[in-house]
Design a protein that fits this description.
It is built from 11 helices and 13 strands. The strands form 4 sheets. Strands 3-2-1-4-5-6-11 form a 7-stranded parallel beta sheet, with helices on both faces. Helix 3 runs parallel beside helix 5 and helix 5 packs parallel to helix 6. Bound molecules: nicotinamide-adenine-dinucleotide and uridine-5'-diphosphate-4-deoxy-4-fluoro-alpha-D-galactose. Uridine-5'-diphosphate-4-deoxy-4-fluoro-alpha-D-galactose binds next to helix 7 and strand 8.
């Protein structure tokens, strides 16, 4: 069972799962995605997916889905993810991300499903004192979105302590970007993009005039913010690896994993790489820092390599090429 399976990371993961022979069912309420993404998964894989239009905040509907099926594990993507919006509408974020997850955990218990892969985020590390970031680093949150991820992590840890039958992989993603190499599935922001890569893509395709770079006075290589960008296909494969791990003998009840490449890339470096990959100029202006942003963030992903046998293979060039192919083939997204 994949919750949030019609969203950005969900679609890419479902495709990897189906291609690996996993029998997948999807739950989504389409609050940040559209049904066309599921049709694309079917076209790419040549397989039908079973889909339930369900809101995870609605426990009765979740129960009906579990009752009618025989799930062995859940990958849980469903949630809201816009940091700025979470500051304006905190209750909405806690309801979707925390209450929704509590409902899911309850229904999973009820139907004896105790394997879970959870979408967490590097945001739980706050502003790290040193880099690269390791899984045992202190955690903190600076906004309701981050707080909701941290709360769920604590809930999952408590659950794993209370009942070691649970096998939970808590995947902390760094910055997922790019798109499937077919150009048929990708990131489809419903509004003005909050994140750098989709914003750059929309400037390249002529949908936005120019990029605003949020500050060039950070203590980084060129003054702009540094992040650990990871291709969404590598990330999707990380979920398959995590799922396999949960079925293995050595699986711990609660296991956190950083999913990143371990390489810091600045905003200007990404802009340059995108210009090269697309052959388009990306006009930009430097504006004030975005409140709450940190200077630099990148992962130590050794734990995932050792325990999951997973590492990212695709580089920045692939990320930009694939993001551009998706944008060029689908200038208005799935619509
Ligand atoms: P997304 O918005 O594209 O996908 C999330 C999906 O969940 C959407 O299809 C949405 O319609 C669905 N959804 C939301 N609330 C729901 C609810 N109450 N019931 C049922 N479905 C619901 O986002 P994404 O980028 O694919 O992210 C997936 C997960 O990964 C999220 O939990 C997000 O917080 C986490 N994450 C994302 C990033 C990132 O940069 N994309 C980074 C770190 C963590
Ligand atoms: N940036 C710009 N202009 C933009 C957008 C972003 O200069 O229009 C800069 C930011 O200042 C930052 C970098 O580009 O230096 C990356 O910004 P993103 O918004 O793409 O990504 P963040 O690292 O800020 O946040 C993302 C997700 C969070 C998640 C975090 C860690 O949005 O939800 O990665 O996984 F928590």
């Amino acid at each position: 069972m994949v919750t949030g399976g019609s969203g950005f990371i969900g679609t890419h993961t479902c495709l990897e799962l189906i291609n690996a022979g996993v029998n997948v069912s999807i739950i989504d309420n389409f609050s940040n995605s559209v049904g066309e993404s599921l049709e694309r998964i079917e076209r790419l894989s040549g397989k039908k997916v079973s889909f339930y239009e369900v809101d995870i905040r609605n426990k009765n509907s979740l129960q009906e889905v579990f009752k009618a099926s025989d799930f062995s594990a859940v990958i849980h993507f469903a949630g809201l993810k816009a940091v700025g919006e979470s500051v304006s509408y905190p209750v909405r974020y806690y309801q979707n991300n925390v209450l929704g997850t509590l409902n899911l955990l309850d229904v999973m218990s009820q139907y004896n499903v105790r394997k879970l892969v959870f979408s967490s985020s590097a945001t739980v590390y706050g502003d790290p004192e040193t880099l690269p970031i390791k899984e045992f680093f202190p955690r903190s949150a600076t906004n309701p979105y981050g707080q909701s991820k941290l709360m769920v992590e604590h809930i999952l840890e408590d659950l794993a302590k209370a009942d070691p039958e649970w096998k939970i992989a808590c995947l902390r993603y760094f910055n997922p970007v790019g798109a499937h190499s077919s150009g048929m599935i990708g990131e489809d922001p419903q509004d003005i993009p909050n994140n750098l890569m989709p914003y750059i893509s929309q400037v390249a395709v002529g949908k936005r005039e120019k990029l605003s770079i949020f500050g060039n006075d950070y203590p980084t290589v060129d003054g702009t913010g540094v992040r650990d960008y990871i291709h969404v296909t590598d990330l999707a494969k990380g979920h398959l690896a995590a799922l396999n791990y949960l079925y293995s003998e050595q699986a711990e009840s609660f296991s956190p994993f950083n999913l990143g490449r371990g390489q810091g890339i600045s905003v200007l470096q990404l802009v340059n790489a995108f210009e090269k990959a697309s052959g388009r100029k990306i006009p930009y202006e430097v504006v004030n820092r975005r409140p709450g942003d940190i200077a630099a963030c990148y992962a130590d992903a050794q734990r995932a390599k050792q325990l999951l046998g997973w590492k990212a293979h695709l580089g920045v060039e692939d990320m930009c090429k694939d993001a551009w192919r998706w944008q060029e083939m689908n200038p208005t997204g799935y619509k």
